[in-house]
Structure formats: structure tokens, C-alpha cells
């Protein structure tokens, strides 16, 4: 299957189901807590948009509004920042690894904008697995960060075909 056909197959909006993380082989709590939320969008034109955050009330101070003003403490804003992640930019496929529409490696980036400044300008390598079951499409994205011995497996369900 050609890369453009795989990109077209992956295109769509996905809703976050869960995230499992490990540090140095030991499972650790999800930074988004027990009630994560998020959307992952791949366009058929080769762009990715990702946003993930916690929906736990203790991680979502209700006194904060946008744009930021005088309300809320630095600690309240830090709590939001610590339990949120967003980024966007182009995406493609790593053609140096085996690729099918059901598995391979997607390259997010170089990231154009993101909530983590260290992600901007960097290509994020993500192994993917697609499972089709009962008319639904599920996407697993495996994130491996060798610098800190971290690994995440994030499961998404497609909610709209792109």
C-alpha cells in the first residue's frame, strides 16, 4: 500500500480512550488521571492536531477563564499546564520501517506549535497499530522516549473519518 493511501486511511478525528505509561519498565499513573480526554486529528493533507487533558475536577480549577487575567493563582495555572498537552504540525510516515494501514510508524512534525516548548521543531516518532472491530476503528499510538526511559501506549477511537 502506498504511503498516500495509508495517510488517507488514517485521516480522521479520534477520541482518547486511555493512556498507559511506564518509566524504566514500571507502570506509572497517567498524567491525565483516571478521566483523560483528548482529540487526535490526522488530515488527508498530512497535518496532525493533538490535544489531551485531565477531566478530574481536582486538576481543573473552575476559577480560571480565558484570556488569563487576575483570577486564579500561579499554582492553579500550573495544575492545568501539568495535566494538559497539545501540539500540531505536519505528519508523515516512516518509510524505512514496514508499513501497512494496520501498523507502522507515523512521524508527527516537525511540530509547529505546542504547549511544551521543547516539542516545537522536533519530529515525534510514534508506532501505530490500527484495529477494526464491529464497525469501529481503534488506533494505538506507542510513544517511546528513550532519554527518560519512558513509554506510553495511547488508545484512540475514530469518531469521524477524514
TrEMBL record:
One Pfam family in the UniProt entry: Lipocalin_5
Domain called Lipocalin-like: residue spans: 12-158
The protein, known as: Lipocalin-like domain-containing protein
Domain of life, per lineage: Eukaryota
